[in-house]
Amino acid sequence: MLISCDGCGKKYTVDDSRIPRNAVRLRCPYCEASVPLPPSPLPEKKQAESDLVRSHAKNEAAPGQPVLNKRIFFSRSLVFHLYLPFILVVIVVTSCIAYSYFRSVPLLIEDQINQRAFVLSRTLSSAISQPLVLRNYLAVNQSAALYAELPGVAYVSVQDRNGSLVTGLFGSLDRFDQDFARTVLANGFPPEIIHINPMPENETVSARNIHIGGRKIHDIGVTVRGNSGAVHVGLFMDDIDGAVMRSLRPLMAAIVFVFIAGVAALWWISNGVLRPLRKLTRTTEAIALGDFDRPVQVHGQGEIMDLALAVESMRTAIQSAITRLKNRQGVSR
């Protein structure tokens, strides 16, 4: 320890090991003056630890100062910012597709059902026009029975020119309510059905969606040639919902496949980015705690590699500065 006496102005070196532990003053051997002892320096390791403790306490006392984030928060934040935009885009695109699909496809299918019902009504009216004029109701009933057996046909009915029911046949009573089916089996075809969709004056076609026996039916009426009567054909509208859902399955399968593929791709990208960043974070934390001998070993590309090289340059510069400081302290002693 280097001591300077204010009385005689002499400077001399004193062995630290020979100074009592609690001594605060020494006596000058030349002038017998009392010389105050300077505070004893801490060892380098303890000094570094003390500086780190003070720095940590300062950071805790000042919450506005930036500190090292937790690795788990860092990882979650990066994954969150990767997955959230993708999920939002998938939700928005899926919603737009579903909205457009359910707005357009059911209308197209309903139009096709309407066209099919019109064709069936027109062909049946042509087939029964002559028997209806001749009042050959057996031939009319046979022709109506053939059309009632077609797939998707709910019922077929024929009226004469006076509006009276000539024949009425259901395609499949199993698709109706049990109470309605029992009523039909007991009393026959309900004549009020033909009046639900009446034929307007001076019109040859009339179409309407009606509910019969708990089922939604698309009824279309066509006048028989020569205005000798009218034919009504009803088709089940439930087939529209089934057709819409069946046609939607491939589209939903494609959306699910894109979503799974996107999640897998984002997981692969995030894992490739997070792994070197986590390793770099651990190395940086070790350097912040005083471990300057640990080299930065991060393998990556682009900005991650540039960041790793910058941290390695910082570590090397700090280590060189500490080495120079130690050498200066050794020379001064």
Automatic annotation (TrEMBL):
Any GO MF annotation of the entry: protein histidine kinase activity
- Any one Gene Ontology cellular component term annotated for this protein: membrane
Q: What is its EC number?
A: 2.7.13.3
Q: Which CDD domains match?
A: HAMP
Tell me which UniProt keywords the record has, alphabetically.
Answer: ATP-binding, Kinase, Membrane, Nucleotide-binding, Transferase, Transmembrane, Transmembrane helix
Which GO annotations describe the biological process of this protein? signal transduction
- What top-level class of enzyme does the UniProt entry assign? transferase
Q: Which InterPro entries match?
A: 2C_sensor_his_kinase, HAMP_dom, Znf/thioredoxin_put
Q: Which residue windows are transmembrane per the record?
A: 78-102, 251-269
* Catalytic activity, reaction form: ATP + protein L-histidine = ADP + protein N-phospho-L-histidine
- What region holds the HAMP domain? 271-323
Report if keyword Transferase is assigned. Answer: yes
Q: What is this protein called?
A: histidine kinase
Taxonomic lineage is: Bacteria, Pseudomonadati, Thermodesulfobacteriota, Desulfobacteria, Desulfobacterales
